[in-house]
Every structure is written in structure tokens, then in C-alpha cells.
Amino acid sequence: MPHIMELLGKTRVVVKDGKVIEVGEPEVDWCPLFAKIRGIQKITPEEVKKNMEFRISDFGMFTEKRRLELEDFVGFGASEVMMTGLSRGLLDSTVTACDGAGTVISNNPTLVQGMGGRMSGLVETEPIDGIINGITERGGIVLDPSTAKMDPVAGVKKAAELGYKKIAVTAAFGETAKELRKLEAELGLDLIVIGVHVTGLNREEAQVLVENSDIVTSCASKPIRDLVKPIAQVGTAVPLFALTQKGKELVIERAKDIKSPILINTMALPVLPEHKQPKDLI
Q1: pTM of the full predicted structure?
Q2: Burial class (CB in 10 A: 0-12, 13-18, 19+), 236
């Protein structure tokens, strides 16, 4: 089974044995984040392939040589927010996904950032021993080392069995977020559900995700931007939205770790300057 990831305009990329073997068509032409960080002014299959190959060579994504300690990629990504939450004791543990391992339970802030900081939309992965061992050595628990399956709900169940209560978990689908809320009530947990990889969700799916998330990324999603009623927002081009009080607290806690100056202001949200948004939103 190869590895499948959606990145840069939700382009489907297949990686096998450390090589890019298939690249789909981008669904978005321009991303302000990658324009700024990587100088990509038009997303094409060639640019996507180059970017995936860069991730493989730079930090060993989808290979035995995967580095699991990585610098912050953006100020307020999902993994950065979780890293801060763990460091400050706002979270007991996290349930996220990693290439070569699938769903991982971890309370190690550095590992959480290392796994997720440069992650795009992981669709499917297969076990890679070097990655699984690296995660285990750093105190992480791989949900299913034999298949590297991705199952956030099963991951939260496992985290609860291990005694964790305040758990942050990433969810890419509204139905997953809904199931997580049900589980939270059943097991008496305190979850922070973070909606991720939302580009291309239809309005109905986006609505369910927004209703069941504490924090949601915006990616290049039009429905998410249309539907959110944030109580805090970070960024204006590809914003992260806090939708609940506990989501807001986590995002504001993260702000303390940002080295550059920060403007804090009150205003009607969301703030979405048209010229800064990915083109075209879907």
C-alpha cells in the first residue's frame, strides 16, 4: 500500500518507497502561505511534486529517515497550538496522524510538533518501522503499528483508557467530529476538537464540522469561511478560528509563544481581506 497525501491546493500525491509516483491536478491555483514561504505563485502538478520531494529530502517524510523534531512551520497551526497546550498543562494528551504510523497518541509537545508541523492532508499511510520506533522512543503510542490506520475516534478511546481526559484531537470530517463529541459525553472527557484539512468540504459537511469543533483551520475552504462564527481568529489569509471558549483559551495561550509583535484587537469576525485569500476558494 502506498502513502497518499493531499497538499498544496488539495492535490493528491502518491508516494511509494520514498518516491513520488503520482501527482493529481491541484484544486486551488494560489495559496498565500506557500507563496510567502516557498515562493510558489501558481500551484501546478510540477510545483506540488517538487514540494513533496522537498519534504522527503528535507526531513524524510514517508521514509525510515523521518525527523521527528522540527521547527515551527507557522505561528498558529494545529500542531503548534497543541504543542503549546501540552507545554502549559492545558492538555493531557493529543490524538493526531503521522506519516508511516497513522493515528498517534502523545503527550510530548516536541513530538506532536515534529509529526504534525509539516503535515498536509494525510489520506492513507502504511507502517514504516523507523518512524514507529522513533515515535515510541519519544513516548508516543501508535494506535495500530501493524496497519498504521487512521482512526481519531479509536485514538481518543485509547487515550481515555490510558487515563487522559483533556485531549486535543484533529478531525478532517464533520461526522468524525460528531462521533468524537458523542464519545466525549459517554466517557466524561474534555476534548478539544480541531477541524483540519477542510479544503473541498461541501457546505453540509463544513456545517457539521463547525458545529462540533473548538478550533478549525480555514485552508482554502469557502464554506468554512462562510459558516464560522469565531470568538477568536489568528491570521487573515489562511486563518485559524477558535469557535468555543476553550478553543479561544488555547489559541491565546499559543500567542504567548510567538516571538514577533502581535496586535490584539476587538472587532467583528471573521476578517477575510479578499486579496489575501487562496485562489480560488472551494
Answers
A1: 0.97
A2: middle
